[in-house]
């Protein structure tokens, strides 16, 4: 795969919220392309994180597009509210939404990019019928709900299969990956077909978030 746009998407789940503004400015300087915001409700996943007020505040602070990953029950009820709060990308789990087509179309109609998320144990075929209505698919390479988890190696083959499915249908759908991505495996996931690379601990768990983003970007330069 060549001539693709590869973007690093720092996940604020791993950031220090006492100096979140400074950390966001650091990843902007490092060349981040997207700001990833994990929204957890304590029901679909065990933890509770941030919601609409935080997304609204961030949208007025950062120049980066906000990518809201809704790890919540009944995401169709809230998806367009996150668009209204300032998210330019909103993704929902196929496992949580019985009316996925309707939710994806509502996100698009509200003016944002619509994404489908796949948990590690959910097969690629689960998105087959909805793929044409999405702008991107987020492959979880860890089980959602916690930061700092170890990358699941089988995710690489999953990305490859999803890439083939998209290409065979000649769709303009990007692949995002989230979970355990760092300098040791970023080249493999990009080579497999991923284009939006979410990284949390590999960026905010280091002494210098700006440099960490630059190093991840440098590792993908051959694919751009």
What can you tell me about this protein's structure?
The chain is an alpha/beta fold. The protein is built from 8 helices and 8 strands, in the order E-H-E-H-E-H-E-H-E-E-H-E-H-E-H-H. Strand 2 (35-40), helix 2 and strand 3 (66-71) form a beta-alpha-beta unit. Helix 1 runs parallel beside helix 8 (209-219) and helix 2 packs parallel to helix 3. The termini are close together.
Summarize the structure.
With 224 residues, the protein is an alpha/beta fold. The protein contains eight helices and eight strands, in the order E-H-E-H-E-H-E-H-E-E-H-E-H-E-H-H.
Quaternary status = single chain
Task: Supply the helix-strand structural class.
Answer: alpha/beta
Shape: globular
**N-to-C SSE string, H for helix and E for strand:** EHEHEHEHEEHEHEHH
Q: Quickly count the helices.
A: 8
Radius of gyration equals 16 Å
The low-pLDDT segments are none
> What's the end-to-end separation, in Å?
9 Å
The neighbouring-strand order within the major sheet is 1-8-7-6-5-4-3-2
Number of strands: 8
């Amino acid at each position: 795969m060549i001539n693709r746009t590869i973007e690093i998407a720092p996940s604020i789940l791993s950031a220090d919220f006492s100096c979140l503004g400074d950390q966001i400015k650091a990843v902007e300087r490092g060349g981040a392309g997207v700001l990833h915001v994990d929204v957890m409700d304590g029901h679909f996943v065990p933890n509770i994180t941030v919601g609409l007020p935080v997304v609204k505040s961030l949208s007025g602070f950062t120049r980066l597009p906000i990518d809201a990953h809704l790890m919540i029950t009944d995401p169709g009820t809230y998806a367009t509210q996150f668009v209204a709060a300032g998210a330019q990308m909103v993704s929902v789990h196929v496992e949580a939404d019985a009316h996925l087509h309707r939710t994806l179309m509502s996100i698009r109609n509200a003016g944002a990019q619509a994404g489908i998320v796949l948990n590690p144990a959910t097969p690629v075929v689960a998105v087959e019928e909805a793929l044409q209505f999405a702008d991107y698919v987020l492959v979880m390479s860890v089980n959602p709900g916690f930061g700092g988890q170890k990358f699941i190696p089988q995710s690489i083959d999953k990305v490859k299969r999803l890439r083939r499915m998209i290409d065979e249908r000649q769709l303009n759908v990007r692949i995002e990956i989230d979970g355990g991505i760092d300098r040791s495996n970023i080249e493999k996931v990009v080579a497999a077909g991923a284009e939006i690379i979410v990284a949390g601990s590999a960026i905010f768990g280091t002494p210098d978030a700006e440099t960490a983003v630059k190093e991840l970007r440098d590792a993908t330069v051959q694919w751009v």
